[in-house]
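Q: What changes when protoporphyrin IX containing FE is included in the input?
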Amino acid sequence: MTVTATPEPLTQDALSSLMREGSRAEHTSAENTTFMTDLLEGRSSVEAYTVFLRQLAAVYEVLESVGRDLAGDPVAAAVVDDALMRAEAIDADLRVLAGDDWRDLPVGPAATAYAARIAETRDDAVLYLAHHYTRYLGDLSGGQAIGRILQRAYGLTDGGVSFYEFPAIAKPKIFKDAYRANLDALPFDDETKARVVAEVKVAFGLNEALFAEMSA
Ligand code: HEM
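A: The predicted holo structure follows.
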């Protein structure tokens, strides 16, 4: 992704606005899941968070591998950026939380289904955008507060929360503005924009299914 200060007019039908507005209800629903509220209000445990992060490892593995495969595609290139890559941070956290053999922890059906859906977008960069946006813009938004809350609530002072830290991104707000401008500069017709928005809803649904599995 190129970070430039191109001011794109944020009209009602700018892709980034459609994505945000189109997933507002899903976002509220995800925020209010039992899993998320328990986790953020200190009613969960380091063990439960570890299981969850192991699921996210499986999801990001595919998200980042498809991103690398699509990096030469002009659509995916609008958003794919090394500064976002989470695999190393997840590995570091899981080594702290679960030890070097963290890959032996099981990946459940929800993360398996989520990863499979992302893998399908390898041939469809337009849909890949939706998965990229849903995870990384979330990590750069609410995720920033979530990292600090987890650290405090579960005493994770010796590592384990680097997933929420983006050392290569000094100012998340500026980065997110550039990200949205890049999305909005893609030459998409209304039908293509609608496909992206529909897939953002799918991505939120897959996250919610993962949360449901985690609290079950
Ligand atoms: C308790 C959990 C959550 C909290 C407290 C939270 C909080 C927030 C906040 C405050 C923003 C707005 C930041 C801004 O205006 O720059 C935001 C944006 C966002 N969140 Fe979350 N969030 C949560 C869960 C999630 C989940 C589970 C996902 C998806 C996996 C997600 C995806 C997003 C996305 C994609 C955005 C960017 C919206 C946009 O500007 O286009 N969030 N979140």
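Observations recorded in class: The chain has a mean pLDDT of 95.
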